[in-house]
Structure formats: structure tokens, C-alpha cells
Amino acid sequence: MTATLLKEASPPPATLADRRRRARRRGRTVALAFVLPALLLLGALVVYPVLFSVGRSFFDASGTRFVGGDNYTEMFRDPATIKAVRNTAIWVVVAPTLLTGLGLVLAVLVEKVRWATAFKLLLFMPMAVSFLAAGIIFRLAYDEDPDKGVLNAAVVSVHDAFTGTSTYPTARARDGQGLTEGADGSYGTTAPTTPGHTVGLGLVGVLPEDLPQGARPAYAAARRTAASDELRGVVYLDFTRGGGGEQGRTDRNESGLPEMTVEALRDGHTVASATTAADGSFRFQGLGPGSYTVRLPASNFAPPYEGVSWLGPALVTPAVIGAYLWIWTGFAMVLIGAGLAALPRDALEAARMDGANEWQIFRRITVPLLAPVLTVVFVTLVINVMKVFDLVYIIAPGPVQEDATVLATQMWLVSFGGGNNQGLGSALGVLLLLLVIPAMVFNVRRFRGSQR
Description:
Blueprint: H1 2-9, H2 16-56, H3 70-75, H4 79-110, H5 116-124, H6 131-141, H7 150-163, E1 172-173, E2 179-181, E3 187-189, E4 198-204, H8 219-222, E5 231-237, E6 261-266, E7 269-275, E8 281-284, E9 293-296, H9 316-341, H10 345-353, H11 358-386, H12 390-395, H13 401-404, H14 407-415, H15 422-451
Helix pairs in contact: 2-15, 4-9, 4-11, 5-9, 9-11, 10-11, 11-15, 14-15
């Protein structure tokens, strides 16, 4: 009787389904215990700041007065914000397109290079450089001074090789010494002269380094007698080192100015041209009777070519995009190269056997097969360029910062960089988040689709 009662009171044996349910519950508990620290960090570092920024965007600069959607209205009335939106649109269209195209071309070409691994390593190395260091590098490379900026040094060298430079950019005539300055920067004789005379054209302001090494004293040349049908003259430095000498006269120690262009004008038209010799002398032969004016053209005094203003208002955004391309081209090439390596080679070989050339294979087979990879690379870069901040802030100088600003830099400037309006800055952050979310959702769906 007692055994029967004990048997009836004991619980029924656990079934296989019960044991499985308990195992799943224990597994979920253990998984939650491992995931909980990551969820706490995600909530503290991502979810809470996002929610706080959304709420903060509805308050004024002090954060004490609720203003509703005024910050969002002000955001689209501010010219600086409109310019930031425009520049961000330029970044989104230009940078990912160029990077995807460059990455595709380089990935295809690298397959045909003997040292492909070394080439990929060289192109990928900029990814190891921080945006801060890359910004400093390109800030120096874009410097307008050719002695500092490597790009302008190359541009100036090419320009000077084909065009040449003026010999005496700082030279000028003394007041009241027989030369008057024209509206174009040239100098001409005040009083007309006639053939058979010698003209002295004295200049000052010539830097010692601008004086050619082969320059000789002009004293003897200034005292040569001109023939009746020629007009002689000398262009000299009207300055004696150590003092002394007489203004307006060629003294014994005063140097001639060689390689200057001199013109003879009659009735306002150039009738003859000459280049000064080592002692600064020149002469015009075969001139007819009459009065002439001797002129030193403005090309003798033109300032040296300084190159391109890479960081000026017109080119600062393309310049910063160029720095971004230098950093991220290797990333695009490696991802597209991985997709290229996974392509079925039998399709490519079949096309070659059918007589297709390499361009046809690239355009009609390689690119269509790589379309999923290209889309992922493009969308990833779109997300990245929407958040670009470091390069714009470091490379763009202060005076043109507003011309180069994007949404991320504008958000920082409005909130912390002097604006001190965190309500408007939060609204800009929310706008940036709303622009990034569609691209992120698209990328996540692409990844899920590829996993299936």
C-alpha cells in the first residue's frame, strides 16, 4: 500500500521533448549572458546618443526651451548648411563612382602584372595611414608655395619649361629719371629720341639673386657712339653697392641688366625689338629719321608663376576628394579583386575562343558578373563619404573651411567649433543619420541575399 502511494506521488519521467526545451532555455540564457555586455555597450554608445540627439534637436541652444521643429527649419535656411548639403552631394556622387571605377580597372590590370602582390600592397598601404596623418601630408602637398608644395613645384617647373619667366620681377624705375610706367606695367622713355643717340635706362629694386652671374658693368656700353641710322642704349642697375655714384648716370661699378627685352616705338607702334647683352647694351639698326620711344615691356617685370591655388575656394573640394581617393583606392581594388578571382573562368575562356577581344570580355562579361560586388563596394563607400570629417577639417585652410564643409564638419562647427548651438548641431546629426540609414539598409539586404 505504501509503495503504491509513493509511486503515485513521484513525478512522471521527463520526455525527450522536455529535455530539449530545457536545453534550449539554458542555451538562450548562456547566450544572453555572453551578449549582455555587448548589448549594454551598444545601448550606451549608440542607442542612447542617438535618442538623446533626436530629443536635443527639439530644444534651443541652451537646451532649456522646447522649440519644436525650429532647428530643422533653421537648418535649411542657413547658407552654410545648404553649402554643406551641396558639398556632401558632390562627395556622394563623385568619390564612390571614381573609387569603384578605379578599383575595377586596377583589379583587372593587376591580374596581368607579374608582381601583382607587391603592386596590391603598395596601393593598399595608404589604408594603414590615419586620416589625420593623410590630411597633414596632403595639406603640405597642396601648399601654394612651390618651395613647399610638391604639386605646385611640378606645375611651376612644367610651366616655366614651356613659357619661361621674367628675369627681373622686382625691378622698377626711379621717379624723375626719364622713365614713366605704363598702365600695363611697362616702362618707356619720357622724352622721345632719334637715331644716332645712346639712351640710358636705369632701374632699381633688382634682388641680388635675380642678377645673372654673367652680368658685366654697363659703363663702357653707355659711352659707345651710335651710327646715324641706329639707336643704341643700355639698361643698367642704377645702384652702386656700398653707396656713392650718381642717380640717373651709369657709374663705373654699376652692372648692366642682360636678357631684357627692349622695343623701339614710333607713333605708338613697335618697329624694332632687341634683347640686352651681358653689359645691358642694345641697339636698333636701320631706323629711319624721326622720333622714337624706347620701351621695356611688362613681360620683363611680370611676377613669377606661382602655380595653382589647390586649396582656394574653387578647388578645395576636389583637392580633398583627391586625398580621399589616395587612401581608399586600395580598399576598392582588393574587394573587387576578390570578386574577380571568384568569377567562373570557363565563361571568360569561352568568350576568348569565340573571338571576343579583351575590351568586349571586360564590358560584356566581367562587369555584369561583378555587378553584385561593385554594388556593395559603391554603397559601402557612399556610407563612408557621408561621414567624412577628418580630411575636410585638416586639409581645408580656415578661410576656405566654409567652402569645403560637409555635413559632418558643419555639425561639429555648429555644436563645438564656435557656434555653441547644440540644438542645431543635433538636428544636423539627425539629418546625417537619416541620409545614411537607407544606404545601410540596402547593404544589409545585399549581404543577407548573398548569404542565402
